[in-house]
Amino acid sequence: AAFVRWVKAGIADHGGDPKRVVAMGQSNGAVQLATYLGHGSGRSEEEAGLRGAILMGGAFNLLPLRLSVPDRFTEPGARAVPPPPMLGPPPMPPAAPIDPATLLARSNLEGLKAQNIPIMVVAAELDPEEIVETVSLLGKQLCRPTLAVVPQHSHISQITSFGTADETMSAPVLSFIRSAAQPEPAGRCLKRAETP
Questions:
Q1: Among 50, 81, 80, 75, which residue's Cα sits nearest to residue 134?
Q2: How far apart are CA 32 and CA 27, in angstroms?
Q3: Checking CA distances to 131, which of 68, 69, 137, 166 falls within 20 to 30 Å?
Q4: Is residue 133 within a helix (H) or strand (E), and if so which, with residue range?
Q5: Tens digit of pLDDT for each residue in 87-129?
Q6: Element (H, E) at 53
Q7: For 104, what's the count of Cα atoms within 13 Å in the CB-facing half-sphere?
Q8: Is 56 helix (H, G, I), strand (E, B) or coil?
Q9: Per-residue pLDDT reduced to its tens digit, 127-182
Q10: pTM over cut 0.85
Q11: Cis peptide upstream of residue 64 (ω within 30 degrees of 0)
Q12: Buried b (16+ CB within 10 A) or exposed e, 150-189
């Protein structure tokens, strides 16, 4: 919540409108933004302060939904991913398995489904399979989703392409931001996908 307060407090100094903030997170930043949105049930809409959100390439916890590909992040008994082997001291031993009940309690799914702001969910064509499938699953659950799978991009190139001649990602994101930041009548979703 501190990041939203910080942006809202200073955005007018840069020509922005504190009532029209759209947040974007990529990779772990997308997971953090999804957690902010998914676990903010105690916040008012004014306090939440976002007109839209862009979640790029996140390995979201969407339990109880299951992926068809192995998910090293949220499967029961999943282990925290150890750091890659390095020269020098031996790598750390694998982390202990994460309790399935804890993983379910940490799921962002129900909170994301309850959001009434537009959310753009993005995967790169060359992202790991579980990220591409997670983006697809999440999009089917959201109130007003915009889905994108960016062709010929990897997990990193989808974000580093901003500000270059390649507008494969930046053009849809800019279009989404312009759309999400527009005033629109308040209202709740009338139809939402059901969790299987």
A1: 75
A2: 9
A3: 166
A4: helix 129-141
A5: 666 667 777 777 888 888 899 999 999 888 899 999 999 999 8
A6: strand 52-56
A7: 7
A8: strand
A9: 998 899 999 999 889 877 888 888 999 999 999 999 999 999 999 999 999 998 88
A10: no
A11: yes
A12: beebebebbbebeeeebebbeebbeebbeebbeeeeeeee
pLDDT tens digits for range 53-78: 999 999 888 999 888 876 555 555 45
Joined together, the tokens standing for residue 24 give 């974007």
Q: What is the DSSP letter of 16?
A: -
Confidence of residue 185 (pLDDT cuts 50, 70, 90): very low
Count the alpha carbons within 13 Å of 117 in the hemisphere toward its beta carbon. 29
Q: How many whole angstroms separate alpha carbon 75 and alpha carbon 59?
A: 12
8-27 burial code (b ≥16 CB/10 A, e <16) = beeeeeeeeeeeebbbbbbb
| Distances 6 to 49, 83, 111, 151 between C-alpha atoms, Å | 11, 32, 23, 34
CB 11 within 8 Å of CB 18: yes
* pLDDT on residue 194: 43
Residue type, 178: R
